Q: What sequence folds into this?
């Protein structure tokens, strides 16, 4: 069966370099996350305390259960904060390197734009733009391939969801022009 | 043999053209999802869930569970041919599977993987068929205190038995429970934690969070890595399949042991990951020549795959019988049940017989069809990996957006999904586990309701959780599990001291 053993090889020309400098350490991010969670716990805790976190004649008030959860969340984050500070020197491993951050932003930024554009042009036009744009600009794939893939995928999605399964997606001026 | 009759009824429900077609579609989509980088079982099921919104619940669950079986099968393809575990539970499969592929025995390894997946699932489904109805009829006697105790047990076992740092599990779980409480309070009708926002009034939808946490964040994480891959393409011939199957009886001990481990760990929220490693390690320990493991031994494929799939399947047992999911994917299926208007829990077996037995029957049929399908189509699916990630990534993003929007037709959910994507990315990188968060988010409201109802019933006396033998032992067990690491440490020290004493005399 070794005759059928052809290899599949896929290259990744824009892969992040291994020796790229670290942008921020895991320890720092852990401290930031714990601080944010602590703030969240305080806000939610206050809101629940205002709603009523004690007992009345019928049992616990609506804020009771979430109030104590906020306390637990706050306690957990405080512990995490102290643990991160104590282990700060040990946890100086990289959270993300510069090359990795660039690649992550190369996906995150288009996704953010996609969500923004969707508000105005509807989901299908936005998906077409995202797929074609991403393939062409980030993946450096031939323009015709990008356009073809994008229009095919968008068309399949439209037929599957809007027509076959009656799951209605947000639409924009283009679909309106066709009467959908 | 009441279960047997009901199972036959389930098959009758299943055997219509429409359901069979949906089953095939689900399996193909599932293998697709399992093979593609940056997607996996839970993500795939979450993203494809909107497809089922307009179906009747039985067709919907058949299709979704087939996506799940397909994803389980698909994960093995990439781990063996490319040394890329598509899922954490396929990591152990790469230890011996990839060396086998390197030696030109890829077809053998794949056949072994698929067959053992099939056997593992089958054992677990048998367990579900006969155990689930019994558990659920027992659970029908449960009142709110018993249910709260069971929820508490689930949460506590995550904290006590999880491998992550305890405070991180606690953070993840309490955050999930808190977010589940956002919106209208179900008992009093009062608004909570909405801060005057009309969008938050609906609450934070569980599925939107899952799509963000698993789908979007997985793409961000995948992009960080080098995506180049080289691997073996293999087609499976009937001769290889038969020769592997002929040797199968030789490995019955391994298969049985792994199935048992898988079923046990699947029911308790330990999960498929632990099961696959444990299956592999035990097979290695009991082997006559442990050093040959890791160099391409077929038992090293059988053991983890059987355990992973037995556990993945048996995770559905507590979901069906008690309404408590045993895994991330089971949690998403549970979210699906609520969308289709079913109320998960023991009453499911009484009120929706067609649904439950249709699902169980589809587990049998889906696994058989899935096995045949993967054995015949491996080369096609392996070549999917030739598609560059730059084309796959935006398509996944679009699918995630469709999924998130379709759940409540709300634009706000798209932003929520994006936010959860970032949260998931950061949490994964600093080691805050996401599974407790998911579980807490889906069970939060039910756990709170159970707690408050029991409090109302007992007029605020916490002793209600120890009011009878059943609820008392579950609650005590929960608290024991919560402090298990401490207790384990104390027991260990006590044992050490006792042993040290006679030695010093």
A:
């Amino acid at each position: 069966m070794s005759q059928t053993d052809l290899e599949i090889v896929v290259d990744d020309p824009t892969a992040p370099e291994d020796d790229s400098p670290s942008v921020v350490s895991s320890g720092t991010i852990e401290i930031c996350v714990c601080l944010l969670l602590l703030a969240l716990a305080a806000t939610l805790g206050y809101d629940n305390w205002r709603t009523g976190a004690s007992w009345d004649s019928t049992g616990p008030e609506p804020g009771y259960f979430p109030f104590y959860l906020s306390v637990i969340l706050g306690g957990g984050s405080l512990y995490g904060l102290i643990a991160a500070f104590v282990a700060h020197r040990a946890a100086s491993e990289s959270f993300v390197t510069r090359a990795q951050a660039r690649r992550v932003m190369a996906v995150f930024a288009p996704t953010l734009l996609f969500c923004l554009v969707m508000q105005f042009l509807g989901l299908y036009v936005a998906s077409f733009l995202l797929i074609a744009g991403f393939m062409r600009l980030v993946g450096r794939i031939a323009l015709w391939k990008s356009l073809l893939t994008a229009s095919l995928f968008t068309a399949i999605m439209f037929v599957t969801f809007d027509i076959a399964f009656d799951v209605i997606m947000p639409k924009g001026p283009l679909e309106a022009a066709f009467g959908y | 043999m009441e279960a047997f009759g009901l199972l036959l009824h389930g098959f009758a429900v299943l055997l219509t053209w429409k359901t069979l077609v949906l089953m095939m579609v689900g399996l193909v989509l599932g293998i697709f999802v399992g093979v593609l980088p940056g997607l996996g079982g839970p993500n795939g099921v979450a993203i494809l869930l909107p497809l089922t919104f307009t179906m009747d619940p039985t067709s919907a669950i058949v299709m979704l569970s087939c996506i799940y079986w397909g994803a389980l099968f698909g994960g093995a393809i990439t781990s063996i041919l490319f040394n890329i575990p598509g899922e954490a539970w396929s990591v152990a499969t790469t230890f011996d599977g990839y060396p086998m592929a390197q030696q030109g025995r890829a077809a053998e390894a794949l056949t072994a993987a698929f067959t053992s997946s099939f056997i593992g699932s089958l054992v677990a489904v048998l367990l579900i068929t006969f155990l689930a109805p019994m558990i659920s009829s027992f659970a029908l006697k449960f009142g709110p205190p018993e249910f709260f105790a069971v929820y508490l047990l689930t949460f506590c076992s995550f904290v006590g038995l999880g491998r992550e740092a305890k405070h991180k599990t606690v953070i993840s779980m309490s955050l999930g429970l808190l977010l589940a409480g956002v919106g209208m309070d179900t008992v009093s009708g009062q608004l909570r934690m909405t801060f005057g926002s009309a969008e938050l009034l609906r609450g934070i939808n569980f599925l939107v969070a899952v799509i963000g946490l698993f789908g979007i964040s997985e793409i961000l994480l995948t992009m960080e890595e080098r995506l180049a891959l080289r691997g073996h393409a293999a087609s499976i011939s009937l001769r290889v399949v038969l020769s592997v199957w002929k040797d199968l009886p030789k490995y019955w001990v391994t298969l049985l042991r792994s199935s048992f481990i898988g079923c046990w760990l699947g029911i308790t929220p330990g999960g498929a990951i632990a099961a696959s490693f444990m299956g592999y390690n035990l097979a290695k320990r009991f082997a006559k020549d442990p050093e040959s493991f890791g160099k391409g031994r077929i038992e090293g494929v059988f053991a983890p795959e059987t355990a992973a799939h037995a556990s993945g399947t048996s995770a559905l047992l507590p979901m069906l019988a008690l309404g408590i999911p045993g895994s991330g994917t089971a949690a998403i299926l549970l979210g699906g049940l609520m969308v289709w208007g079913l109320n998960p829990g023991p009453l499911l077996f009484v009120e929706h017989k067609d649904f439950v037995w249709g699902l169980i029957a589809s587990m049998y049929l889906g696994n058989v069809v899935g096995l045949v399908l993967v054995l015949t189509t491996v080369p096609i699916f392996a070549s999917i990996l030739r598609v560059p990630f730059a084309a796959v990534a935006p398509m996944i993003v679009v699918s995630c957006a469709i999924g998130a929007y379709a759940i409540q037709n709300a634009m706000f959910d798209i932003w929520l999904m994006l936010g959860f994507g970032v949260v998931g990315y950061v949490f994964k990188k600093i080691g805050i586990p996401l599974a407790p968060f998911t579980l807490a988010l889906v069970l939060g409201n039910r756990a709170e309701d159970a707690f408050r109802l029991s409090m109302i019933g007992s007029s605020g006396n916490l002793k209600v959780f120890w009011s009878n033998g059943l609820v008392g032992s579950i609650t005590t067990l929960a608290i024991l599990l919560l402090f298990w690491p401490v207790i384990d440490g104390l027991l260990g020290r006590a044992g050490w001291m006792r042993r040290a004493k006679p030695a010093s005399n």
Remarks:
- The longest strand of chain A covers residues 7-10.
- Chain A touches chain B through 79 residues (CB under 8 Å).
- Confidence is low (pLDDT under 50) at residues 1-5 of chain A.
